[in-house]
Every structure is written in C-alpha cells, then in structure tokens.
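Journal club prep — side note

Before the paper discussion, L.F. wants everyone to see what a predicted structure for a comparable chain looks like in token form. Sequence:
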Amino acid sequence: MHLDNIVGYLDRRLRCPEIGDFPTAFNGLQVANSGGLSKIGAAVDACEYVLVEAAAAGVDLLLVHHGMFWGGNIPIVGAGYRKLRVAMDADMAIYSAHLPLDMHPEIGNNALLAEAAGLVGGEPFLEVCGSPIGLRFSAELNREVLREHVQRAVNGPVHLAPGGPIVAREIGVVTGGGGSEIARVAAAGVDTLITGEGPHWTFTAAEELGVNLYYAGHYATEVFGVQALAQELSAKFGLPWQFFDHPTGL
C-alpha cells in the first residue's frame, strides 16, 4: 500500500482541503515518508512521547488530531527538531485532522462521544471557522443522570457547572476546548453543553447564562475519532493499527 492512496482517501473522507480551521492546524499530510506503508498508528497528539512510541512499534503512518505545528511557524529546534528527527529516522508519515475529525458525522469526535453517552438524532450547530462543528440533541435527561452517561463514555470523572435546568432538554456536544464558546452556545438556545474543558471564567459564565456545562476532559473527549479512523483504514486497506494512549488529565 502506498502513502498516496491512503492520503487521497483521507482527504476525501474527511474533506480536509475544504474545511476551515485554525491557522496552525495544517490539516492533511504534515510529514511524508518514502511511500510504503505497513502499520497505522493513532494518537490524539503528535507529541514527542507518542512519536517515539510509534516509531518503536514500527508505525509508518501516524494519524493524529492535534498535529505537529500548533506552535505556529517556529524554528526547528529543541522538541520540534527531535520530533521531526524521530519521524524521519523511522520513515513515518504523519497525517493530522483537527476540525474535520471533530465534526465528521460518522467517525467524528462529537458524533462518537454523543453515541457513547446515549444521545441520538443530533443536528449540527455552533459554527467555528466557517463550519458547524458541534452537535445538538433534543432530549429530557436529569443532569446527574446525563453526567453518569458522560462519565461512562469517557471512562473518567466529569465536572459540572450546574447553571442550567435540572432536566436537560437542549444538549450540545462540542469536544475539546468548547467551554470558551459558552456564550454562543447559550445564544443558540442550548441549555446543557458537554465539552472537554474551558477557562476558569466559563464556570461562572455558565451559571449566569443558565447553562449546565460538563467538563469531561479535552483529551478524554477526543480519543474517539482517531481510533475510528484508524480502524476504518485498517479494514479498507488491510493494515494493522495501534492506538498510542498518552492522557494529559486535562
């Protein structure tokens, strides 16, 4: 299997060339290799720990959600140099998908987190960088029962700012750092938001805006998409895959 075949498939499947994103996301192929592929790796972050582990495991295509260049256009020194050196020495390609993977209706972080929490029938909402990246659900769930569902989905604790109604009826799901969008979420008529994290001020803002805000962990809410994508590629192209878990606790 050649790298070009899988990159073409990924670009079409995720629509990376046409979906807007933050300037340092650089969605798509970020690091090439010599072309041959034998094993797929998946990880949330293209951090040094992950790259070293993936190289040692014989990965030659690493799929990540947060790519190599979040720091922007910076000199290739220090950790930046070491990471590129690891990738090139291992002949390991790196493909990154940020918002395209968050918003994908089938294998996206939002869709899969919602499914794991038992939410069905979502509609896209909350435009970011020109695309609706979140999902909105109509339901009637006690907010503590909903917290239990989310905790099972992320396999960990979920902190709640209980600013909204005891019975949640309009529930938004925006993985990662969606807490900072709390004002726009409230303006959209959502009374409960499930996200990964938010700055300190978002807790009191949620109270004042009348919204329940669940902080389920940035990392924990974004492990879904890269694993689903790697599993799909494995089935389609006949390559083994491995997930490299490196939780931040945030």
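L.F.'s comment for the group: The radius of gyration is 18 Å. Keep this in mind when we get to the figures.
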